[in-house]
Amino acid sequence: MVYLDYSATTPVLPEVLDSYNKVTEEYFGNPNSLHSLGVKSQELLESANSQIAELLHIKETEFIYTSGATEANNLAIIGAALTYRRYGKRILFSKMEHPSIYGIAKYLEKLGFVIDYVNVTAEGVIDFEDLKRKVTKETILVSICAVNSETGARQPLKTVRQVIRKNNENCIFHSDMTQAIGKVNLTINDVDLASMSGHKIYGPKGIGLLYKNRNVVLTPLMYGVEDGELHPGTPALPLIVSFAKALRLALTDLNKKEEGVRKLNEVIIAHMRKYPEIQINSSKYCIPHILNLSLMSIKPETFIHALESDEIYVSSNTACSHGKRSESVMNMYGEYKRSETTIRISLSYMTLPSEINEFLDSFDKHYEKLSKLK
Ligand code: PMP
């Protein structure tokens, strides 16, 4: 099997799974219980919290565990919208967001918020002139992902923040960092709110995190025992501890791992250049872990299943867009065919050069066969 869909989800590392199992068995006490089993669990929870805070260079009071990035995005965006609506109704998103963000935008529109979308350039980066035009005194929140899940285009968050601040210094800035964390170096403090997910960093599914700068006040979306708690309920200790471990491992040797992935990405791009019809939807701003191609004359579903017959697994655009056209590619290039025929190859530091060779052999075999059928 050659798995090249790491941006959809990653396998859980064995040592992360070991932590999950160990905590499930040995720390089953509720961290809120007063007896010694509870205290033991509470101590472990505190040590996971401090490890995460140290790894992300944030304070222990500045993050909330969630079930994943979708929930973190909901809590950040809806929670901020409800708190700050007395200052304005405008919320701005980019045109390179994950589908889960557009779902939230639609909901906020129903609540009466005015939603706008900032354009991107052909290189997949925020159009700063458009951003300047669209951040007004009534804009209470801007949400722009760190890395786009379909093309890997990375946004310069620090500069984005400067532009936002120049127009409106009270505007909150959220970033969905799900596709960036554990792949490239990031400064979380460039934003006020940041979402991330365990299953994209070789951790378990069902755990994510929302970073929240201490000056930001979110309106809770759920209610429990403690007043104002943003994620009420018993802490999911096995998920939390294994998430902390996955995060530590993901951030180890980050630059070295990225360089390895870049080499693999370059091998694929060089190979694809022999096919004049194939478009490479990548710019110098894209991280090497995600490579998006437009096949142009072959349906991506057909091609994905052909590769699958050789046990090679890639995506069309994102796993969450269920085979619709790639909005990100459409927004970058404005070409229907190009956006409707995309495949996304997503790589890991674990991907071997031999796996890339196997993928390219299978690609050639199926491409030559299927392109003759058109
Ligand atoms: N945002 C981005 C950028 C993603 O890539 C994904 C996962 N495809 C999500 C959010 C949703 O993450 P989760 O599955 O943890 O809810």
List keywords for this structure.
374 residues; alpha/beta; Aspartate Aminotransferase, domain 1; Aspartate Aminotransferase, domain 2; three-stranded antiparallel beta sheet; 12 strands; 13% strand; globular; binds 4'-deoxy-4'-aminopyridoxal-5'-phosphate
What is the topological layout?
Layout: E1 2-3, H1 14-26, H2 36-56, E2 63-66, H3 69-84, E3 90-94, H4 99-110, E4 114-118, H5 128-134, E5 139-143, H6 157-167, E6 172-176, E7 193-197, E8 208-212, H7 237-251, H8 254-272, E9 279-280, E10 290-294, H9 300-308, E11 312-313, H10 327-333, H11 336-340, E12 342-346, H12 353-372
The structure holds 4'-deoxy-4'-aminopyridoxal-5'-phosphate (PMP).
4'-deoxy-4'-aminopyridoxal-5'-phosphate binds at residues 68-70, 98, 100, 145, 149, 176, 178-179, 197, 199, 208, 318-320.
The CATH architecture classification of the largest domain is: 3-Layer(aba) Sandwich
Radius of gyration: 21 Å
List the ions, cofactors and other small molecules found in this model. Answer: 4'-deoxy-4'-aminopyridoxal-5'-phosphate
Distance between the termini: 28 Å
- Number of DSSP-assigned strands: 12
Give the percentage of residues in beta strands: 5-15%
CATH superfamily of the largest domain: Type I PLP-dependent aspartate aminotransferase-like (Major domain)
Count of all domains? 2
Outline:
globular
Report the helical percentage. 40-55%
The CATH class label of the largest domain is Alpha Beta
Tell me the CATH topology of the largest domain: Aspartate Aminotransferase, domain 2
The order of strands across the largest sheet is 2-8-7-6-5-3-4
Task: List unreliable stretches of 5+ residues.
Answer: none
SSE run: EHHEHEHEHEHEEEHHEEHEHHEH
The helix count comes to 12
The whole-number mean of residue pLDDT values reads: 96
The secondary-structure class comes to alpha/beta
| Largest β sheet strand count, sense and barrel closure | 7 strands, mixed
